[in-house]
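Dear Dr. L.,

I hope this message finds you well. Following up on our conversation about the binding site, I have prepared a predicted three-dimensional model of the protein together with magnesium ion. For your records, I am including the exact sequence and ligand specification that went into the calculation, followed by the structure tokens. Please feel free to forward this to your student if that is useful.
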Amino acid sequence: MPVETNQGVHPALSNATTNAPVKKRVFSGIQPTGNIHLGNYLGAIRNWVETQSEYDNIFCIVDLHAITLPIDPQELHTSTRKLAALYIACGLDTRYCKLFIQSHVHEHPEMSWIMECFTPMGWLNRMTQFKTKAGENPDSVSTGLFCYPVLMACDILLYQTNYVPVGEDQRQHIEFTRDLAQRFNSLYGQPVFTIPEGLIREVGARIMALDDPTKKMSKSDPNPVSRINLLDDPKTIKQKIARATSDSLRLVAFDPERPGITNLLTIYQLLTGQTQQEIEAEFAGRGYGDFKAALTERLVATLAPIQQRYHELMNDLPTLEAILKQDADELRPMAEATLRHVKEVVGLG
Ligand code: ATP
Ligand code: MG
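The resulting structure of the complex is given below.
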């Protein structure tokens, strides 16, 4: 069970001077692998922003995960900065959150090696993300892609995290992280790791691809019209929503049997804060054209201020770099403390 006060809290995390209750720790991250989209926003970032003042937050740009599949070096470097700017532009506040680049804290890959040695092959063989991403070529993709869940577990466990807010697709990786932490703790008979819990919302945790509502919206989807990117301009958004798959029924209603229109309605629900009944009443007797126009308008209005702030931040890269460096410097001792403990109990060094 996560702990609420300093008693029993990992020494690196306690507030030794005041002995005040420590806020629960949240950790999450996104890979700088391409265009950040509406699924990343509604399934992850927006939820981080909403609860940020309640928690002690760490949000990572997981660039070490981004190299599990081939990626151009210049693109990786640029995408890393763009993602950091988007985190802040979407509303993450550096008063409540530490933002850092994963490869700036070398304890992540170091602990990952150790934890790989405690991970049964069978556990990794069961991971569905590997199967999806490896596709037809499981023998030629990198072993990094196979071991991805261990590095993700280390990202979380290094900071004695209580909660991990993610989208539905990460549920299996969170379970894996808990199992690995529990296995390690019980093997050495001591609570080396806090056991984290996933926070997965009921609505919005799986935004589907616009062109094919049977698969999730993804950065790595080769079809650009499958997703709305947070940096898309109004004309592009209008075109993508106009082309989005619906059906021939022409009835604007939530219906699990009709995943295309239901996906668009779910996006509208999240952007407006209305209930499903209110939305169905609003569009009763009206066609998909009216609904898609309203959805487009909402999307443009939601993304405009994010894009404006994003461009301001990208025009001042030294400030962004300074935040990332300072936060990595502040987090490193925490990661060091956990890794030191792990090495000590294993007998390394
Ligand atoms: P990639 O295709 O490179 O894996 P991705 O779109 O899946 O990219 P990630 O960086 O893997 O993005 O995931 C970042 C966060 O966004 C995670 O919390 C993940 O659960 C969430 N997320 C990703 N896609 C969706 C989606 N379609 N709906 C809701 N949440 C999502
Ligand atoms: Mg993903």
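In brief: The CA atoms of residues 31 and 63 lie 6 Å apart.

With kind regards,
A. P.
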